[in-house]
């Protein structure tokens, strides 16, 4: 199938498919005129890539994991990589929570000038 049909069937843009190819996530055969042609399983491959992106994984991480997916094996290394990604996301969540807490202190300060400095100092770690 050609790139436009794959984009439609997988629910992504043509640009996204070209990016996936550049990143080594998706392969295509080329016609003599240079047009991309994809096999039927490419639809599922693109949906998998989309799912991995939506789970917060980077292109590089996805590229590292796809050989395991293709081989239908779960290795200790691939599980460790996924756990490391989860830990990275947990750290981001913790930082966002601290940022939200500081913003809550600023909001509280903006509604009440009494003890404003104290509230701000409590919200900002030393």
Layout of strands and helices, then pairs:
Elements: H1 3-10, H2 14-22, E1 29-30, E2 36-37, H3 42-54, H4 59-71, H5 76-111, H6 116-123
Antiparallel strand pairs: 1-2
Helix pairs in contact: 1-3, 5-6
List keywords for this structure.
126 residues; mainly alpha; two-stranded antiparallel ribbon; 6 helices; 2 strands; elongated
Uncertain parts: none
Average residue pLDDT: 90
Main sheet properties: 2 strands, antiparallel
Shape: elongated
User: CA-to-CA gap between the ends?
Assistant: 59 Å
Helix content: 55-70%
Strand order of the largest sheet: 1-2
Compute the number of helices. 6
Residue share in β-strands: under 5%
The overall strand count is 2
Rounded to an integer, what's the Rg over CA atoms? 23 Å
Give the SSE string.
HHEEHHHH
Structure, explained:
This protein has 126 residues and is mainly α. The chain has helices at residues 3-10, 14-22, 42-54, 59-71, 76-111, 116-123; strands at residues 29-30, 36-37. The protein has a two-stranded antiparallel sheet with strand order 1-2. The termini are far apart.
């Amino acid at each position: 199938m050609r790139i436009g049909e794959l984009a439609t069937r997988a629910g992504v843009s043509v640009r996204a498919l070209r990016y996936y190819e550049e990143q080594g996530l998706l392969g295509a055969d080329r016609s003599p005129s240079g047009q991309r042609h994809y096999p039927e399983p490419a639809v599922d491959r693109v949906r998998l890539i989309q799912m991995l992106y939506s789970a917060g994984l980077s292109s590089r991480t996805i590229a590292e994991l796809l050989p395991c997916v293709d081989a239908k094996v779960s290795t200790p290394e691939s599980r460790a990589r996924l756990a490391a990604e989860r830990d990275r996301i947990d750290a981001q969540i913790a930082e966002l929570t601290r940022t939200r807490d500081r913003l809550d202190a600023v909001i509280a300060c903006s509604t009440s000038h009494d003890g404003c400095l104290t509230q701000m100092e409590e919200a900002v770690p030393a």
